[in-house]
């Protein structure tokens, strides 16, 4: 049964095209003719969710199956939610406009912690019991994946099963198992028992935690023998042969990343110690330029987009970049298609490339030194020196750019006020660099923007043991920096520490923090990543109501032998390696990237990507 | 330069997209079709296309029109076929013709016909509704408040005279209600002709406001469909696809 959305309802909300679907390349199937209905839910608005590549891949991949209809669901904005609740309209999918509560699977992708209350809100709007224990036979299975799923515990009470790692294979295995199970009309629990042994599947209801008196975890235990006690992430070894969509949905309204996206490679060789993505997506696996060109042409033909974007964690590290870009520029020029190049390291090659590729105004270039002093950059293993940065901005100024954005973090481990001041000093040096360029070869009106975010320690990083600075300390550092930034060309932006504080709680939260999520949602928290809807006071009330101290999770230094809520998840990078890296950070020692030598992080056990390509360069995978 | 004019429909599936977004839909469809469209010069080349009177968000239409500049000669029928293959289902080109007139389609629009389905939460008989609409139209002057966005994005209202903009009105009983609209007490269809275009334009919503406020017909929901657009040639209102409008 389709939900009915009358015109006057849609006319009364902002951007009604968020809810009407029917876009070019969206799949149209007859729901009666499929065995499996999968509601792919992104817990944020249409514009944000539609920009997410993972969803586009899995949407296409699931719909390749004739037995499955995968449909898209986004969080209705506040105005639409109010109208839906008033009119008793349940959460519905964009394709068939049918209630999500009637689907076989309701799958969430977890991209950031601040979307967790939206997960709960969407379940509630769908009429699905929030707690997995309350779900009955015939109700959908709620599953989740994505980077935040690597610490699944905060959502463990709400999600029937998690899928760890890259989804292209595991999701098909789960669908196959489901089809079999459905035909046998077995129980809910039976299905979970069938999939629990699939590598990468975590069924939280099959495990329990016990705690020490000090609140730390005592043990993680399987409730029955035979359940795996290490859940290993899934990974695609060969990116050239794995599925990539030939067509992507082209939205009617502008979305955040409104362009064709080409994924160059997965993983990152750099090993910046604060960066979760840099560890959990290891090892680096590249696509060949030939495959990428083929993908680009197919996608351009099917979407007609005016821009094509090369994406990865660090585009400059792509070994085939010169070959790929020169060929794409030739192909796309004729079609009046621009090439977008995010996350490039700035050197003469990339500047020339940008000049050729993007018909953008030469206003803003972005650099991320992350820390203000060399000492602290060594601590975080950010392999950028002051000289590198000043050379790059110098080249950019000579090339006609007159705006530079500098991204930093405050609250990094071992940071002192001297490091904070270093941010202002570095900003000033960038300004000086501009004045080094002769007047007639630089552009006028220099603007340098310094932005600081607050460091959030994340699981599976060498800093997973570290405390986050208290909000007061972070504010103190911000105001100190504000005072130190004096040059009229320098602007300073900072993030409110409240959001970072909550991120720190849930990034490393255990199963008990799920109660806080539920309580915060009851108190009206949702769309927490949207400033206008962020209700920090209600969050604090939720912690109090649950008797949970957020500082225990955010601001506590963990012992090296502490059991973490995510210890049963295996991302390939060993805890021993992370511990070694933590030690090297304290010693201000840098670790070379995987292109230079292997540091034995453990992911070579996957037997693919750079670990194989660079074997022989130095040693093997010498992890203990 | 070779110019073509097309007529197209906008169905239910694309009624909630803005005029600007519609232009993007065409721009991308053109790129997919590989049709030889002329692009503007300069920094950010855009395809050379001009649309008729923008359709307000929430309306469907069977009579939209647009002009395209091409770099190569191409038969109108072939242009239509190829572009239709690239467009989403909810947009269909129904006519295409060579255009030699230099007049910009946007500036030429002078009138429009609409079909308004209106729904009331009061039980009003067709006879009563007809009387009420009739007496409204018998007035020499109908003034309504029109929302006007100020420079500072503030919203102000000003009074506008709409009677001279109404060309014809016919009230009819509704034959078949769309799904979901059974809940309303009464429903009618109004076939309306309004002045339209850059010189004088009556938006159908304003007329519905007048029905509510001044004809005692409480309209709580409505569906609006554009039935025809007209250009004015030699004092005559004609179809933009008409030969006289193209030459």
Q: CATH homologous superfamily name of the domain at 7-232 in chain A? A: Cobalamin-binding domain
β-strand number of chain A: 19
Name the poorly predicted regions of chain B. none
Multimer state? heterodimer
CATH architecture of the domain at 7-232 in chain A: 3-Layer(aba) Sandwich
Low-pLDDT residue intervals, each spanning 5 or more residues of chain A: 618-624
Biggest chain pair interface: A-B, 28 and 31 residues
Through-space gap between termini of chain B: 15 Å
Task: Write up this protein.
The complex is a heterodimer of chains A (624) and B (247). In chain A, 34% of the residues lie in helices and 14% in strands. Chain A has 21 helices and 19 strands. In chain A, the strands form six sheets. In chain A, strands 2-1-3-4-5-6 form a six-stranded mixed beta sheet. In chain A, strands 15-16-17-18 form a four-stranded parallel beta sheet. In chain A, strands 10-13-14 form a three-stranded parallel beta sheet, covered by helices on one side. In chain A, β16 (403-410), α14 and β17 form a beta-alpha-beta unit. Chain A is globular and about 75 Å long. Residues 618-624 of chain A have low confidence and may be disordered. By secondary structure, chain B is an alpha+beta fold. Chain B folds into two domains: 2-100, Alpha-Beta Plaits, CATH 3.30.70.580; 109-233, Alpha-Beta Plaits. Helix content of chain B is 23%, strand content 38%. In chain B, strands 1, 2, 3, 4, 5, 8, 9, 10 and 11 form a nine-stranded mixed beta sheet that branches. In chain B, β10 and β11 form a beta hairpin. The mean pLDDT of chain B is 92. Chains A and B meet through α1 and α9 of A and α1 and β10 of B.
């Amino acid at each position: 049964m389709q939900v009915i959305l009358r015109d006057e309802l849609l006319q009364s909300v902002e951007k009604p095209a968020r809810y009407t679907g029917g876009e070019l390349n969206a799949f149209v199937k007859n729901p009666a003719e499929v065995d499996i209905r999968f509601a792919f839910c992104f817990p944020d608005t249409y514009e944000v969710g539609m920009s997410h590549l993972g969803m586009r891949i899995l949407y296409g991949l699931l719909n390749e199956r004739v037995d499955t209809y995968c449909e898209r669901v986004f969080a209705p904005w506040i105005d639409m939610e109010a109208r839906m609740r008033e009119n008793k309209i349940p959460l519905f999918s964009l394709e068939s406009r049918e209630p999500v509560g009637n689907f076989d699977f309701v799958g969430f992708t977890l991209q950031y912690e601040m979307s967790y209350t939206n997960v709960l809100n969407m379940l509630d709007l769908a009429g699905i019991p929030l707690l997995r224990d309350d779900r009955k036979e015939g109700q959908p299975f709620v599953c989740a994946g994505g980077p935040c799923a690597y610490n699944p515990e905060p959502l463990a009470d709400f999600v029937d099963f998690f899928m760890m790692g890259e989804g292209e294979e595991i999701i098909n295995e789960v669908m196959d198992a489901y089809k079999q199970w459905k035909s046998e009309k077995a129980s809910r629990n039976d299905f979970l028992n069938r999939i629990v042994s699939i590598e990468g599947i975590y069924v939280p209801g099959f495990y329990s935690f016990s705690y020490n008196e000090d609140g730390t975890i005592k043990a993680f235990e399987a409730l029955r023998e035979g359940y795996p006690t290490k859940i290993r992430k899934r990974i695609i070894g060969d990116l050239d042969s794995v599925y990539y969509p030939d067509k992507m949905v082209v939205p009617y309204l502008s979305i955040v990343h409104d362009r064709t996206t080409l994924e160059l490679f997965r993983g990152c060789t750099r090993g910046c110690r604060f960066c979760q993505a840099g560890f959990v997506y290891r090892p680096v696996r590249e696509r060949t330029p030939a495959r990428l060109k083929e993908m680009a042409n197919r996608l351009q033909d099917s979407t007609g987009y005016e821009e094509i974007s090369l994406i990865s964690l660090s585009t400059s590290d792509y070994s085939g970049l010169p070959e790929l870009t020169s060929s794409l520029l030739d192909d796309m020029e004729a079609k009046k298609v621009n090439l977008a190049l995010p996350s490039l390291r700035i050197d003469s090659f990339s500047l020339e490339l940008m000049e050729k590729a993007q018909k953008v105004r030469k206003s803003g270039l972005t650099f991320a030194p992350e820390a203000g002093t060399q000492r602290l950059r060594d601590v975080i293993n950010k392999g950028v020196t002051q000289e590198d940065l000043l050379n790059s901005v110098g080249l950019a100024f000579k090339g006609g750019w007159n705006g530079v954005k500098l991204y930093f973090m405050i609250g990094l481990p071992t940071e002192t006020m001297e490091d904070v001041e270093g941010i202002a000093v570095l900003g000033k040096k960038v300004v000086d660099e501009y004045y080094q360029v002769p007047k007639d070869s630089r552009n006028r009106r220099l603007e340098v923007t310094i932005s600081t975010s607050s460091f959030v320690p994340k699981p599976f990083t060498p800093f997973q043991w570290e405390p986050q600075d208290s909000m007061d300390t972070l504010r103190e550092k911000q105001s100190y920096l504000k005072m130190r930034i004096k040059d009229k060309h320098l602007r300073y932006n900072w993030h409110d520490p409240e959001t970072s504080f909550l991120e720190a709680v849930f990034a490393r939260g255990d199963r008990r923090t799920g109660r806080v999520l539920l309580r915060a949602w009851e108190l009206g928290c949702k769309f927490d990543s949207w400033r206008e809807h962020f209700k920090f006071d209600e969050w604090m009330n939720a912690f109090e109501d649950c008797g949970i101290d957020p500082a225990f999770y955010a601001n506590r230094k963990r012992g090296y032998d502490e059991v973490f809520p995510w210890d049963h998840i295996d991302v390939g990078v060993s805890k021993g390696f992370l511990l070694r890296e933590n030690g090297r950070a304290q010693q201000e020692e840098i670790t070379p990237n995987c292109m230079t030598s292997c540091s034995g992080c453990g992911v070579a056990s996957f037997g693919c990507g750079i670990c194989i390509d660079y074997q022989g360069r130095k040693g093997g995978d010498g992890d203990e | 330069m070779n110019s073509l004019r097309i007529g197209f429909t906008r169905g239910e599936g694309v009624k909630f997209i803005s005029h600007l977004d519609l232009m993007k839909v065409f721009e991308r469809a053109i790129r997919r079709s590989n049709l030889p469209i002329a692009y503007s010069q300069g920094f950010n080349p855009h395809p050379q296309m001009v649309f008729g009177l923008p359709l307000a968000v929430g309306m469907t239409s069977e009579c939209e029109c647009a002009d395209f500049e091409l770099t190569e000669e191409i038969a109108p029928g072939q242009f239509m076929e190829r572009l239709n293959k690239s467009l989403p289902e909810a947009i269909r080109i129904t006519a295409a013709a060579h255009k030699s007139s230099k007049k910009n389609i946007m500036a030429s629009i002078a009138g429009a016909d609409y079909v308004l389905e209106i729904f009331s939460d009061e039980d009003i008989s067709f006879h009563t509704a007809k009387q009420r609409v009739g007496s409204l139209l018998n007035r020499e002057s109908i003034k309504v408040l029109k929302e006007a966005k100020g420079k500072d994005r503030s919203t102000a209202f000003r009074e506008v005279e709409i009677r001279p903009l109404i060309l014809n009105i016919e009230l009819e009983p509704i034959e078949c209600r769309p799904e979901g609209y059974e809940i309303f007490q009464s429903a009618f269809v109004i076939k309306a002709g309004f002045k339209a275009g850059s010189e004088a334009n009556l938006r159908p919503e304003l007329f519905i406001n007048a029905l509510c406020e001044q004809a005692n017909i409480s309209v709580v929901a409505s569906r609006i469909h554009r039935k025809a657009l007209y250009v004015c040639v030699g004092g005559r209102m004609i179809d933009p696809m008409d030969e006289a409008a193209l030459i």
